[in-house]
Fold MFS transporter.
Amino acid sequence: MTPARTSATRPQPPDSPDATGSGRGEGGERPAGRRRALFGISLGYFMVLLDTTVLAVAEPDLARSLGTSTAGLQWAFTGYTVALGALLLSGGAVSDRYGAHRAFRYGIAVFGLGSLLSALAPNLWTLVLLRVLLGAAAAAAVPATLSLITRLYPDPVERARAVAVWAATSGSALAAGPLVGGFLVDLAGWRAVFLVNVPLAALTLACTLGRPGRTLRSPRGPRAVDWSAQLAACAALGLLTDLLIALGSGGYVHAGWSAAGTVAAAAVFVRLERRSAAPVLPPSVLRAPGMPALLLTGAAVTFAMMALVFVLPLVLQQSMRLTPFATGAAFLPMTLPCAFNPLLTGRIVARVGPWRPVLGGLGLLALGSAVIGAAMLAGDSYPLLAVGLVCCGFGVSFSLPALVTALVATAPAGTAGAASGLLNAARQTGGTIGVAAVGAFALVGRSGGGTALAWAQLLPSAVCLVPAVMILRGRGKPAGSSTVAR
């Protein structure tokens, strides 16, 4: 593949803003090269999401193998999301500072190596530490994906379609995760769920290197990273998670110390942020019209999704006596819409803008969450549960791709990486709190699973109303932002 040429101009270097030819991305890359690079970017995000869901159906086998409790399972699950959610706050800044292509490739390489080591973990706490490493690697790679897509597709309409493909490819991780995880657990136990990441990481790097990969190169930026404030944010989120897990386990003294630590870490974070020349939460991004609604919506959606992903395998395998693979299949009413519906969402967003799909997704998710909670309280009624899963699947697949497009349109110029990091941090923080809170409820009473799921789904149903009202009242979006083009 060669850069675009005309009879009147010479080829432009990859970083040149004038290098975009007709039907080509930055650097004049041909459509085939862009598709290959887009596939690699999407595959990397697929792998990160796969690691979030693939472990869910392995929970009972993991508990038996390592002799751990529900609290231990929560840490094995949330060790990844705590690191990912907290470090995503600076993941975007790292992407802007050192170049999105570098952050993405180094993150994917460490993720592959960390997955291999996780498969060899001899005990629970070694696995938790390695899950933290995986979360840190994912935090470097995830914000860079949106920056790379923006570089490949500078035209807003083409970018909306590319984001839809990215969301569909990554959304298929939700469909593949429980099924792949169930198959691997039935075949070789929980350790196999980490080995699948090794070839995926290698393929991702192959697709984003070479000639197409040169299109993704971006110059280093001037933005600094405040690591002291970032560490305070990690401590605050980790201690908050520990507080919720301790409450569920009945360790009230432990919970008291964790609560005090959470308040102290949050206070330190606020103090450092006020004095920082490079704040973790960029004020220009936070003040952008529509950003509060975007962040709150992302947190609520992922709270509901991850709470369900954590609790439902335990309920299905323990109450309904399903095998791990059958448990993964039981998720299909929710996960299949996440695989194909983002393509439809991309077309809708390109025509009417992102906010209507966001509203529709919030409504479906609120309805589905309530139905799932009612189904679990009614006594493990799978037909009713499936109805709720379908609503949630379409709710997630309408809202998240539209949120990403709205983010690109809303973020100030030059802050795509930071804005992407903020949105993904909000989502992972919501998911972390969801898993911790659900686990706490799951330890209370004989019907803890049903009660936990009901509370976990009713809470995001209420939270979803807040950004929905903001959007309907015109406070959630810039004036006149009816399409993806600003």
Observations:
- Residues 226-277 form one domain.
